[in-house]
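Below is how a single chain appears once it has passed through the pipeline. First comes the sequence as given, then the structure the pipeline wrote out for it. We keep one example in the README because the format questions we get most often are answered faster by looking than by reading.
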Amino acid sequence: MLKGRRNLYQAYMTLLQRSSLLLCLHTTRKTVPLMMDEALDYLEKRQKRDPAFTYEVIVVDDGSKDQTAKVAMKYCKKYGSDKVRVLTLVKNRGKGGAVRMGVFSCRGGKILMADADGATKFADIEKVEEGLRNLQPWPDQMAIACGSRAHLEQDSIAQRSYFRTLLMYGFHFLVWFLCVKEIRDTQCGFKLLTREAASRTFSSLHIERWAFDVELLYIAQRLKIPIAEVAVNWTEIEGSKLVPFWSWLQMGRDLLFIRLRYLTGAWRLETSKSN
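Resulting structure:
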């Protein structure tokens, strides 16, 4: 991420207990209400239909200076601290670092990560839940369902410049060649993990910026965790994109680091189970 923008990054998380899910968002204070309102409206209605269903929203403020935490605290006051919590990082660590903090703060049995810009509708959680159920029986209670925009690729190409399309194909090739071969869309923010899968993968995670999704899935494949790729609805939101050239360059470098450091043993997988 560019230095001038680093404090504009936030991460938010939502965790559901028992039938548990976790929501992770990243945005600025202007778009916090959009996703929070949509997510909490869905979660409240679902809880009314099923009283056994409980949830918690964890908001992780990744060293921002735009009052994101203050905006999130309004939801804490409205819904209560049992349903909304706010965690604050003093220094910016990046999306991966903020997500990891949220994951290790959650108490649920399933954890959902989703982008806060509303590009994917929160109700699509039911699609990834079904994808996760279809992987049963889960070995050692581990499984991951990834939301995917791969089915929309041709439409997105038609709307992008030639340069952005070239960068996209280059990045996808590097992901496939160096790290993850079975998942077409590693970067979609909609990912659902069982608690054990989240614990095992995030315990070994090193990348704290945008390429953390790739390392997460690379670790999952190395641990032989079953992964489902599920098509979700997605709309490109203005202002939610990365700066093309430098961001892709940084991500390409991170992909190379992931492969080389695990290959040489500089990074090792966490093999012990944890709860």
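The radius of gyration is 18 Å.

See the next section for the split statistics.
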